[in-house]
């Protein structure tokens, strides 16, 4: 498939739909397809979204150590694009991720037994006013 802005937008939007449907593995797959071909200034942003989806996937499957590791790397990538990027209020999104992963971050056991709290799972809601934010 040729790489162009229209296909980037389509993959971006499709990943968001999967993410909001809690289909985190599928969101990761779609965004990874975008990230693999993309060479612009938002490459690390897309990598952060991919890792956010992977972290939630791991958390939902009980892989708490994996979830923590990927969550932290996701934050590292996304923080640099704050306050917003491609229509996402990253400050709000990262705040939601922080709430969702609070028990993961507080766990001291080597293999903690935690379950993801459905009410704390973040969603991505695009704000057209923020659409160009972060695009340099």
TrEMBL record:
Signal peptide: none annotated. Transmembrane segments: none annotated. Coiled coil: none annotated. It comes from the Bacteria. InterPro entries: DUF309 (IPR005500), TTHA0068_sf (IPR023203). This is DUF309 domain-containing protein. The lineage of its organism: Bacteria, Pseudomonadati, Planctomycetota, Planctomycetia, Pirellulales.
